[in-house]
Amino acid sequence: MKLPISLVALFTLTLTALADGPADNKAESVRPVPPPGVKISDEARTELTAGAAALAKEIEALRNSLKGKPALDLLPDVQIYHKAVDWALRYDEFYNTNQVNSARNLLKQGGERAAALKEGKSPWLTQTGLVARGYLSKIDGSVQPYGLVIPASYAPGPSQPYRLDFWIHGRGETLSELSFVDGVQKSPGQFTPPGAIVLHLYGRYCCANKLAGEVDLFEALESAKKNYFIDDNRIVVRGFSMGGAGCWQFAAHYPGVFCAAAPGAGFSETADFLKVFQKETVQPTWYEKKLWHIYDCTDYALNFYNLPTVAYSGEIDSQKQAADMMEKALAAEGMKLTHIIGPKTGHSYEKNAKDEINRRIDAIAAKGRDLLPEHVKFTTWTLRYNRSHWVTVDAMEQHWERARVDADIDDENETIKVTTKNVAGLTLAMPSGRYPFALTKKAKIVLDGTKFDAPPAETDRSWTVHFAKTGKKWALVTSVNDGSLAKRHGLQGPIDDAFLDSFLMVKPTGTPLNEKVGKWAAGEFTHAVTHWRNQYRGDARVKDDTAITDEDIAAHNLVLWGDPQSNKLLARIADKLPVKWTAAGVQVGAQTFDGSHHAPVLVYPNPLNPKKYVVLNSGFTFREYDYLNNARQVPKLPDFAIIDVNTPVSPRYPGGIATAGFFGEHWELIPGPTK
Q1: For 357-454, where are the E strands, in sequence order?
Q2: CA-to-CA distance for 292 and 415, rounded, in angstroms?
Q3: Domain boundary at 415, 448, 477, which?
Q4: How many domains does the chain have?
Q5: pTM exceeding 0.85
Q6: What is the pLDDT of residues 235-273, one digit of tens each?
Q7: SS3 366
Q8: Are 396 and 413 contacting, i.e. CB atoms less than 8 angstroms apart?
Q9: Most exposed: 23, 113, 158, 245, by fewest CB within 10 Å?
């Protein structure tokens, strides 16, 4: 059977159509992503517009009638159908004329679910086979779809928990919500392990599950757990092509979450992949090169010590480069990568190789995740990724330099031996039932050569201990957060990190300090909102500065547009930021930049609520040029930058970069390299 194009994009997982090649190395001639759609007939547009409007009214009626009731949580399961059609109409995202019929069917399905909810029913929750689901994202309040393959043997209720395999799709620049929701209801995809649930991630469209696309996995999992009995110890992550890259990234960043990983093809790092696959001459700035450490999985090779992994490549696939690079990185850490190679095969799975992958992954999943590995090896470059099993890095001596932890449980001597590098805060925590020693004896901890008597475990056999380092000396502490201003997990930068949690764009209502800078900020605001919609498939929350409430300050990372004169909220905190901004100039340490044509962009703990970020004049920092290859979709600016608006905005930068850098571990301004 020949699959329609929407399913080809989703399930054959190629990187060839509309994507990736030397023609996409020209920043002056960037094609749009997503591309414009095809024209549909006026009659079809009128029909679908009316159908979408009718479904929208049903959704609003349900929102009101279900308010305060548990069934309201199921409203996204209806909304995904409306969004799929409504956005295709509004944003010209029909990519073949057959999608008109698909849209009709989706509106019909949405109407059926709405009618069922109105009657207090939700039959899709007990449905086996292919099921489309949805959730509301904490990031922007948007409706995001995901697909499920529910085995025929599934029995709702408190039965034996089910294994769950994530599937991360390949690159598809035309993979709109319409294509995705339609597709997950027509094909189970590449892998359907017997008796397992498969969860197909939309991943916020075509970003290789980076940044907000990464959060999508955890939000979709949380949503699925509300209605399906999922075994936390038998969660597998898989993907191919762009999805293989996503799989490498999840495995490298979260080695304690999954029981196994099965990446296929894709890319695993930035520089060599762009050189080999994209034929691009890469010339990063010093801070861009540091920021590669976020998604270069070769830098996290040590973390595969605690995560069983089976990689796959076609023998003649240029993307075999990804596993080859990981193989070298793992070898440098003393490990040998399991690498299944499909003989004489290009960018696809070879049948026998696929069977061998299944045999190995099924055996690992049957055993499940190691609940308390005796030996944990972990590395990171940022507190965004700070945990593996019972080891958590709470503070670093210096971000964007390698941190390492080697933690070993010595049962015979009831001792835990830990060695660290570039770590300034550490937590060891074992969940209920997992403490390995006698409750009546205090365990000994040897941390970088210093001996400590550990606090006792609790009677449920859970145990937690915290350490903080001052200079070269470790000490036992009662909490990892002493209330001081410091970089912490989820509050460590760079600018793009603010868009991994709930954020709110705050528009200025006053007169700008300088007209040219004000015009630039207004243009960048429009760009940020538009491109969030295009690339991350949500409508950014937006409020005027005069409308911001204490509840907003408590709930969101605030993205402030304008300057201290035009934006009232920025005026409230301007003297508490490390960059000073007046009409005359922008001062960064000993440097001052002409205020008539310079503006700061930065991320910093919000002085009004230090548990959240404040961002000045920036959305996510990669731009149109970077959309053309997923390996480029990494942060392009660090914690702060000064923009020269005399240099025109381009598909690569928001203007001229006069200076840029990272704040220190206590969010202090520190001098950085000049190139």
Answers
A1: 375-380, 387-388, 391-396, 403-410, 415-421, 423-430, 444-447, 450-453
A2: 37
A3: 477
A4: 2
A5: yes
A6: 999 999 999 999 999 999 999 999 999 999 999 999 999
A7: helix
A8: no
A9: 158
